[in-house]
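User: Reviewer 2 asked us to show a designed sequence for the structure in our supplementary figure. I'm pasting the structure tokens here. Could you produce the per-position amino acids so we can include them in the response letter?
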């Protein structure tokens, strides 16, 4: 049978795990002479469409950076609004995620969040714990350096308690103490909003992730731009240190 003239999108490799820095809400609002809050509200809608499209395209894990360790440095009013929007989004979306077989979890420094918010986060995690279609992780009050530091503290505690021999500390043991433990590494990283930086996102986990940047501001991120990222990913050769010849031989 002759090969089809055009490859079906489904035949191209799809990233299993996509990690996203959702940046550009403030500038989106500024361009429209709106308060930054309007940009954050618009950004929350994009979160929903991105989750839906991820499921449709066969992505099985999605990690979204919602609020960084450094975002605490923003004006108190903006921080308060972001926390409020986060709470509202949780209340609004959890039933839908539950109905669509999406497992929701959070990573980040919960000690810095309001107890009422932490309770709602835990309840959402419990409610969706058995779901398998999409493993959705939202990073809130998260920083890659924070994660590595809390992992180091846990490892030192284990060494002090005699349950870990420091000589046997290896990459697997360290990875097992990160808040991302047990998840596959992201295959594709997407950052909207034009900046070409990691901004303290998943420092350990992004070691071999394919990076993709777009100037599109987060509220404007839609299916066609997501599709461009997936298309770019599908054309990349991931060598993980090996040579291209080695990969062809295997
Ligand atoms: C991303 O948009 C949302 C958060 C960081 C919480 P920004 O608020 O950073 O938007 P810009 O970068 O100022 O446009
Ligand atoms: C990164 O965006 C954090 C999130 C999107 C949550 P920022 O807007 O905070 O990043 P910088 O400060 O420009 O690097
Ligand atoms: Mg920004």
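Assistant: Here is a per-position design you can include in the supplement:
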């Amino acid at each position: 049978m002759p090969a089809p003239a055009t490859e079906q999108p489904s035949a191209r490799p799809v990233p299993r795990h996509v990690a996203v820095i959702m940046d550009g809400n403030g500038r989106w609002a500024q361009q429209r002479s709106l308060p930054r809050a309007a940009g954050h509200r618009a950004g929350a809608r994009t979160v929903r469409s991105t989750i839906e499209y991820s499921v449709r395209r066969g992505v099985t894990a999605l990690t979204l950076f919602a609020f960084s360790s450094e975002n605490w440095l923003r004006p108190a009013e903006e921080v308060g609004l972001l926390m409020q929007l986060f709470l509202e989004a949780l209340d609004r979306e959890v039933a839908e995620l539950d109905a669509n077989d999406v497992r929701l979890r959070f990573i980040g420094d919960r000690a810095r969040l309001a107890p009422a918010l932490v309770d709602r986060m835990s309840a959402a995690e419990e409610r969706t714990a058995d779901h398998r279609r999409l493993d959705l992780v939202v990073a809130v009050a998260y920083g890659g350096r924070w994660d590595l530091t809390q992992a180091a503290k846990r490892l030192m505690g284990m060494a002090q308690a005699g349950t870990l021999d420091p000589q046997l500390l290896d990459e697997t043991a360290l990875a097992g103490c990160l808040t991302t433990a047990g998840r596959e590494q992201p295959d594709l990283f997407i950052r909207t909003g034009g900046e070409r930086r990691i901004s303290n996102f998943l420092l350990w986990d992004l070691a071999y992730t394919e990076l993709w940047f777009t100037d599109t501001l987060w509220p404007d991120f839609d299916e066609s731009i997501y599709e461009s990222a997936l298309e770019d990913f599908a054309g990349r050769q991931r060598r993980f240190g090996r040579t291209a010849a080695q990969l062809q031989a295997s």
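For the response letter, you might also mention the following. Helices lie at 25-31, 36-56, 76-99, 115-127, 144-161, 171-175, 223-234, 244-249. Residues 76-99 form the longest helix (24 residues).
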